[in-house]
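Re-run with default settings, no changes from the original entry. Doing this only to confirm the output is reproducible before filing.
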Amino acid sequence: MNAAELLKRYFGYDSFRKGQKDVIDAILSGRDALAVMPTGSGKSICYQVPALLLPGITLVISPLISLMQDQVKSLNEAGIHAAFINSSLTETQIAKALALAARGTYKIIYVAPERLESAGFLEFALHANISMVTVDEAHCISQWGQDFRPGYLKIVDFIQRLPVRPVVSAFTATATEEVKRDIEVVLRLDDPKAVVTGFDRENLYYRVEYASGKQKDKFVMDYISGHPGESGIVYCATRKNVDELCEKLRAQGIPVAGYHAGMDNRTRKDSQDDFIYDRVQVIVATNAFGMGIDKSNVRYVIHYNMPQSMENYYQEAGRAGRDGGDAQCILLFAVQDIIINRFLLEQKIFEGMDEEEIYRMRQRDARRLRTMEEYCRITSCLRNYILSYFGEKADSPCENCGNCHQEYETVDLTADARWVVNCVAETKGRYGRKTVIGALRGSKSARLLEIGADAYRSYGVLEHRSEKELRLLIEQMLSEGYLYETEGDYKVVRMGDISGLRDENTHVCIKKVKDREAAQKKKEKKSGVGASLTDEGGQLFERLRQLRFEIASEEHVPPYIIFADRTLTDLCVRLPRDQQELLEVSGIGERKAQKYGRRFLDEIAEFLTEHPGTILSVVTVGTGAERSPKRKRKEAFYLNPEDAEKFPYRESCYISEMKDRLNEICSADFVKKVTISVIWDYLVETGLTMEEQREGRFYKVPTEKGRQMGIRMVDKVSQRGTEYQLPMYSEQVQRLVVEHFVRPGTKSGL
């Protein structure tokens, strides 16, 4: 039996997902592997399938007791013999498990890293035929990872002590390039096959909502009430938030479980089980919850507070939509969140590190916190920001996140931007954003009066602007290089390259939310794997879900281990009539079809008898019912051939004029507008322009090649009498730019 046949027989899937086969083939060829794959992409398949084909035992090292238990239950349900060894077992139970393993009963054994040094386990390992050691949550081995665990360093010593080195495979969902290199080096992987499938989970809808205090409580209560029957996680930064929010939700009649490290083990276990077994639909928890939870049908994750890092956020938000169905990831942001997180990071204890290492760790944590703050404040695509952080470049906005669906209006604040520059100059670059904004708005705080800000020429000149507007303006000026911020615990704002502001054609604009209520309506949409079902199909789905719950209670396993929600949806779409048709349903293998198939077939048949001729789905079998539809994104800017003929060429023009004319003549549908930066990047790529550094500032200038093509610098004088220069572009360069944007294959003869 080959890998594809095993996948269908035991797991019920017809084909491998992206990256899975590459990893499996590498392992089966005897090569080490390192896979960075997002949550819900099927990492476990990458080592479970080859484990069944390799001659010996596969050890899966994981720090997560819950994950081990879930995975072993799922494997045994699928007809694969597996076991776990961790602190939840007695020594007698561990000895029995190892004895059965020695006799070849188990192909896969999950083990906690601290067990690797125990005498009993080491004795077993030294005499067993171990074909592969799999390291799950591999980022835990890197001190640069968000969840460094010193115990993971024992893995290397353990592998070295084995009589024959097995294949070593490592898996993680969150790893920057730095962490990825660390994993490879620390684990001493031998020429590993590295597979990075990307961090984009298209079924997740990211959004940020500004809310504080009681607004957060109201949002959470309204959202949960508006999504009855859906499983969700609400993450809070502190135990106090968890307890208070749980109390408020229960007072509203919402069944909810709470989870944090301050609870005793029994209470935490009961809360976790209530959520996993669908006895409650919502759990409110600190980040102590969720590691290793394999619940596939979580439809939303709400962050009541901003997390401390993008790694944490991506991992926690990623617990939504593991079944591939649409899910919401909502972050409720307030300035107070930053203060709370700074306090929590200050209390963080670093064990086994010297002062220099601790300093570096604190600097890293501060940078990560600033990244999260920036994520919460941006008006551009949220998904692209996440992808960019993890080193992935997106071609265009996703058109499927809160910011892409938000309605914004562009406000020209060029005159205000010049006053910001004036204020920064008057502070002599000694203060941060808060002080600059306070001075411009004419705040009478003791601190501003103490430093003499009330004597600035810029003091109070922008009192008509809100604090939020000025914050957005400063962020825009930072992104465009007019200002920059220093590193360190106390960041101060200083002058960047302000030469562009002297050009009367330069505009500094911010985006403001236009109509929040209208935008909110656009955001809300039917979510989940059942989105392809009609109302009648939804009724059948609920009946199948109730049947699944009854079977899970009988078997003492979580419902999603019987069948995932996605499988129930496919049952509603395909409406199988016998065992053979049942095996065509995504997620149903031979063992589960034999064990549970008859009861589900009977339930479907009974429903169809009660509702003859009813249309249950808007999806036709064979069109990929198990996949979420691809969302159309705006294409990168391009021109049609007839557009190019309309360009009004001049002897010379500024780049801003080129940009405006290109956008005016473009007749292509559903394309993004071209920007100055896109044109500039092209001119740099072609070797016509460059950025030249002088006295710490960068200036845009032509190269020698650019000068030969007619790009020239023009002297300008600002209204205040300051002299500066701007490049102007010849007709030859204008034609080159236009030709570049004509869609390939349809170029006109310019």
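The longest helix spans residues 355-377. Confidence is low (pLDDT under 50) at residues 516-525, 623-631, 746-750.
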